[in-house]
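Listing S7. Sequence submitted for prediction.
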Amino acid sequence: MSQQLTPQNWTAPDLTRPRQMTVAK
C-alpha cells in the first residue's frame, strides 16, 4: 500500500509520527 503522504491524508495521530505512517501504510 504505497500511498503518497499528503497533509489531507494525514490524521491527528499520524501527524505526531509521520515517519511511522510511511512504514505502517
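Caption to Listing S7: primary sequence and predicted C-alpha cells for the chain studied. The longest helix spans residues 18-24. The chain has two helices and no strands.
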